[in-house]
Amino acid sequence: MIYFDRVSKHYDLRGGGKKHVLRNVSGIIRPGDALGILGRNGAGKSTLVRMLAGVEHPNSGRIERRMTVSWPLAHGVGLQNSMSGADNARFIARIYNQPIKKVLDFVEDFAELGPYMDMPAKTYSVGMMGRLLLGLSFAVDFDCYLIDEVTATGDQRFVARAQALLAEKTRGRSLVLVSHVPEHLKMYCRTAAVLNEGSLTFFEDVDEAVATYKAL
Amino acid sequence: MSAATGGSGGLPGDLPERRSEFYRTLEGLRVQGRVIHALLLRELQTRFGRGHLGFLWLFLEPLLLAGVIGLLKSLMQSREMGNVPPFLFVVVGYAPYFAFRAIINRATTAFQANMTLMYHRQVRLLDIMLARNLLEMGAVTCVLVIVLAGTAWITDFSPYDLPTMVFALLLMFAFANGLGLLVAAGAARWEVVDRIVHPLTYIALPFSGALFALHFLPARWREILLWNPQANIHEMLRDGMFGDQIPAYYDLTYVIGWVVIVNLLGMAAVRAVRAKLEF
User: Fold this and answer.
1) Which residues of B touch A71 (CB under 8 A)?
2) What is the pLDDT along chain A (216 residues), one digit of tens a residue?
3) Is residue B92, in this structure, part of any structural domain at all?
4) Which of A197, B31, B42, B257 has the maximal Cβ count within 10 Å?
5) A63 touches chain B (CB under 8 A)
6) Signal sequence: where (chain A) (predicted)?
7) What value of ipTM does the predicted structure carry?
8) Residue of A nearest to B33 (CA)
């Protein structure tokens, strides 16, 4: 369960002034939830995910994590571009206390990078990077997965595989997926929320959230 | 999904229990150990590549630099240093200084270069710094061991008091580590720090006492230089190496005081800067 209570976050702008990204946002993510968060570019979706992950600190309010939560799965972060996919896998296995072989095998099977597994990650296409990231996080087995758009970039085959694995992996676990693409949300999530101008509104029904988001 | 909206104070009743404070501290230490180990291996890889020669460079770089300066010095042969081989004198002074400067200079980019790792909750800024610094220290320690073992084998010249030397080396590393933490935190907060630190490390060389013994200075200059904890540490190192052959001047309590203060301040600064990091 992740519990967040009256969380606020702002950034200081150059030349004075503040940009308020989140104002008094509260909520609970329980085991088994598959929550999608919709928001326009720059609405603060990634910031929210980073704070749920405990990576970025809120200016006020509290966030409690009482389950294992993945790192925010977003493009170009959490991995090291100068290192190969395999070396990144070893690093992840070490810091998350997993058997290296298990992580390597899983990633090789899931990400299907072939010889690229031993190439520096900076040579990867966006889709390959997404596959590597998801593969790594699935290899670790978290209670809750935080996904920031990475599933959006795959081709048909990858989307199908990711969908199958997410459905299997997140049974009894949780998923928080942020995106600005409603269709994407419908594929993975059972409930949804819309983040707009610093406030987060929850909907029991994804279609309702999508309609609200489109009307913004 | 239960849609809690703003304003509900306190924790909900059905939240899972937290583990005891003691258990979490232990677990925290285990995690930190794992993370530093992983970071060390990664640092080796990203800096020197996967080739085996790349790994060698870690030692060759300081060894070559100290070696060249040492050779130049021994060609010039001037000081009244008795039986002290000039080459050894320079290596013992310069190799630790090399590590010191590398730790401080590299600290300015430590956080910027590793922001992507901060996406993993368990990776802390302190771990990143410790891993980098341990690597620098390990490299220079290896260089010293190679040089000392080599000269002991060839010329029969061995350290006068090894424990003092090792202790001085540890103090040097701890001092550099603390300063490095301060520099890293400062650089993350203010861009100027990065610009100031590099020239400063060059200007500081003559005042560090790395390349000459304070004994050969006029007493007044010596007193001034001894305000610098680093000069004290270099004196202590030479004391351990050459013993009575060159009189040494240092105040151990003064150095330890500095080391403790600088490290505590450094850790506090790194902690303070963490909450302000923007991604």
Assistant:
1) 119-121
2) 898 999 999 888 888 888 888 999 999 998 888 899 998 888 888 899 999 999 888 999 999 998 899 999 988 788 888 888 999 999 999 999 999 999 999 999 888 888 998 998 888 888 888 889 988 988 988 899 999 887 766 677 877 887 777 777 767 788 899 988 888 888 888 899 999 888 899 998 888 888 888 888
3) yes
4) B42
5) no
6) none
7) 0.87
8) A95
